[in-house]
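As a representative case, we now present a protein record of this kind.
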Amino acid sequence: MTWLTWPLVGMIIWCVCLALWIAIRWVPNRRSRRAKISLASRTPSERFSMIVSWMGLGGIPLIWIFTGWPSALDHETHPVVVLVGAAIFALSLRLFRLTHKALGVMWSHSLDLREDHKLVSTGIYEKVRHPMYTAFWMWALAQPFLLSNWLAGLSGIFGFGTLYFLRVGQEERMMEERFGQEYRDYSKRTKRIIPGIY
C-alpha cells in the first residue's frame, strides 16, 4: 500500500469532511428556504466576500486535489500534522451541527432575517455570538494541516477571513437594529467567536 501516502490521506480526509459539511447543511438549508425573509442585506460586498470565501474553502483546494495545480507549491507533510488537521476539522463539523440545530429555520447562508426572527442566546450561543464563524475559522485552520500545498492549504484562511471581516460588523448592526437593547445586552455578556477571549 505504498500508494497511500500521508499527503493523499490528508486530501481524502479533507474531501470526506467537505462531504460531511454538505450533509450537515442539507436539511437546515431546505427548512430555512420555507421560512419567509423579512430583511435581506445582500450587498455587492456581501456577494464578493461569499465568492472569495467559497474559493478559499472549496474551489482552490478542489482544483489542487483534482488537477495538481500549482504543484510548485507542494510541500512535505507528517502523520502528526495530518492527524491534527483531522481533529480540528472534526471539531469544526461538530460545531456546525450544534449551530444549525440551535438556529433552526432562522439560519441563513447570507445576511437575512426571517419573519418572527428570534434572538438565539442559549446553548452554543450562550458564550459566543457567532459560533458558525468559529466553525468556519476552525475549517480554515485545519486546511493547511490536511492539504500539503501552500496555496490550497492557506487559501481558506484568506478566503474566509475576507468574508468574516467584511461581514461581522454589518451582521451585528443588523441584529442590533432588529433586537435593540436585547442584542446590546447579549453582546456585553458574550464574545464574538472565542469564549472569554474575542
